[in-house]
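> @MW can you paste both from yesterday?
MW: sure, first one:
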Amino acid sequence: MREQSGYRLKRGFDIMKRYQRTINEILMMEKPESFVYFSDPETYEILYISDETFISEELRREQYRGEKCYEILQGRLEPCPFCTNHLLSREHYYIWTYHNSHLNTDYILKDKLVDFDGHIVRMEIATALKSHEAVLKALSESLEGQNMLMNCIQPMLHETDLYVTQRRILDNICPFFGAEWGTVQRFGEHQILTQWGRRESGKWRPGRIPSAFVREYGELFNSYTQILITDTEAMKDSDPENYEFLKQEGVTSLCSTPVFTGSELAGMITLGNFSKNQANITLLFTLAFYLSSLMQREELYRKKMRLQYYDALTGSLNLEGFRRESGRLFSESAPQEYSLWYCDIKNFKYINDLFGFHTGNRILKYWASCLKDSCREDEAFCRISDDNFAFLWRLDEQDRLRERFNGLADRLASFGPFEEKNYQVELISGVYIPETPCGMDIDEMLNRANMARKSIVSPRGSRILFFTEELRKKALAGIEMEAEMRSALDKEEFVLYLQPQIKLTDVSGQKAHRAEALVRWMRNGRIYAMPDDFIGLFEKNGMIAELDLYIYERICILINRFKTCGLTSVCIAVNVSRHTMMQPDFVETYLAIKKRYRIEDDELELEFTESIAVEELELMQKVLKQLKKAGFICAMDDFGTGYSSLNVLQILPLDILKLDKGFLACEGEDRRRQIVVKSVLQMAKQLDMLTIVEGVENEEQLHLLQKVGCDYLQGFLVSPPLSEDEYRSFVKEELHGGESEIRQI
């Protein structure tokens, strides 16, 4: 769209400022045989008459003020029985003819309600008709004006395309007013400029107007003003500078009517070089009113569409908009030519909790801008919900797709506000490549991409996983397993195992004072499923809280069995899931069971994974304080697998820190590894925390820990998970020196 030069804009603004006219001033410019008067529709008092000599040569202005219109104009003592006040509106003229016997003249009358000095008043334009031919001509002109107006308005009632409407308006008003050219503009975010006329007729056309000038125009006009120059030659002496400008531009006459939506200037109707029907020029006000309604309707439609198809925070497509856009793309190219990605930001809730929702929203906007920059014209993306996004990329080799994704992940990782905090934003994404032929809709494809995303198990870094049929079979098996969980709990198919924890200074003697409770799903005397197969499913369906409670109570029973048979001084650690911790009665329930079985404080330990601190830091701090007050020993498990700040250890009242085996497997020189592990262990010691390193599987790792120092070891080097009987056998000699047999129960 062409934008006007600064000089033309400034010159045009000056012209508009000089030649704006109110509707009342324009009406008073009616033909010589006409006069205009205004009266109060309630009191009938005359407020103004443009030319009182039409009524009487002797009448002067001071003589009619406050007089009744029916007295002055009709010579009556009471309101006229044919008064049209009740028929008038602000939108349309009421046109009629009448022989005024008091003035002995035939008139064609155009009546309307208008704003006059801040009040709604009756306006009547009276045109004297000297002959029958004059009557017919006046009626014809009025009828033509009304027909023209209706031809413009009628399509607006049904048309939703503003460009089409603007074109129809110009097709009607330009010929009616004999204009050589015309424009209708819509300002704002979605500017539309529609033009009419021969290219050679005149040079000057209003082009695209910058928003700053639109604001100035809006301050200049109101909905009852109009720019009107009926003859530029009349400006030659009074306004030579603007006269020369308009003459050079080929403008002989000009009329611009503003279109307002509320108090905002929304558009402009402009006619150039018009030559007839000037008496009907005020019809453009009515046209502007209807065009304003259409613009408002279109804007509401746009807002509705944005709400329906776009995400309010990021401005990107929402899921509904993505469905529509993917349908369009698939109509142009086969689905098999695309890869569908379902992606989310790792630990986003933790980011919100740690850095605030404002920062979280900034990340989402930044991520959306990264995707927007990455997507080509024939690709699309959307925000599904929260931190979940989906995108369609053109299909390529998997390595190239990975490379493209990693480039995006690197860009997100460089999110400015986190660089100073040494925190990296990371992604996980599932990818589905449609099969040939593809009979699925976009929702089914998204489900498969999401299935792949949920199958990603990765403690660190951005990761992607491509959907495979084997992955789907595994997911279906998980669904079947999920269906059996309730009955498995009822049948007590979940069996406890204990993995010993040995004090580092007692490795040779292997005194197993401590153990971690683990669980196996047993069926018909054999292991049916390992924890990795079902714990995730329990967490998804909420049954993990029941399993946690089931294990916790059975550990309390087991501790009592151990004590009954002489096996004392053993502390058993029990895992607590995020879902369990969030139960409103969690602390009360666990404390009641502990008291019921008379468990001592040093016989039981509750382990919380690092991921809980990442996701629910504030709640975890509150719960741990309650547990500590109730006498529980509390530990953080899997430290080092996630992204919790070291400062978290200072915030949370923990007794034990369990280091993940990842600390032992970190890459780099042995010296560097020693420094990292030693630093964490020393920090924990300074915070009065007991330290346990899990996943110790070989002598090399043992020697490392002997150098840097820790309290306890856990892993296959010490012992695999043991059944209750196996654990008793494992510890009886170490705890009792072989002096007494542990009674079997």
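MW: second:
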Amino acid sequence: MVMTECSDGTTSVTITLVLVLSTQAVTHFNQMWKKLLTSRKFTTITPDNLQKYFPGYFRTPSEQLEYERLILYGSKNKIPVSTQSMAPYNYHCNVDCRRRYGPFHNMRFKRQASTGSGNNDDFMHACCVTNVFFETPDLKPSVNGDNRNLLHLPGMRQVFKVENCSQAVGCTGCRCMHEQALASAVVIKQHIPPSLADQMDDLEIDLFYFNGCCKCVNYG
């Protein structure tokens, strides 16, 4: 009888211990699953996550229209320098900027498709005409020469300001030249096929050159 009573007590303790451990295991599993789901929510490539981790890189069509409006307004709103800001080293301009040159010879014109408004404007300066537009490339060489896949989502793309530089035929006072503007962009890591990129960890930042400010550079 003593052995039976002792045995019944051990069985009861064992069952209780198993129930406690089982409950803890289920609780732990639920916590881990909840953590996994929560983690995935913030690591999947979505518009909200892109805005959270890469603010300012992606714009909707309406945001892009406003961005272009501000860019073009700033380009048109020229601020003249004062006479105190003139070059101090007796530089002389050998271009008559009052002269109307024409027609213009397009040096490097390669307009690319844009999902922006297509807004652009022409600005004349000495021998040059600058045309401002916006492009949104899918594939572009980085500053290191590697072709990189830029990330875009439907209704949310990365858009870059580009300037096209043209030179007047017969102008001999200066040569129109592009400055190369440096810009950063969100790209898909090189070892990941673009069609399989769906996690924020699949992305990184790289640097690119775009045709920037058109300069009328004196020579002769």
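> thanks! Helices lie at 2-43, 47-53, 61-76.
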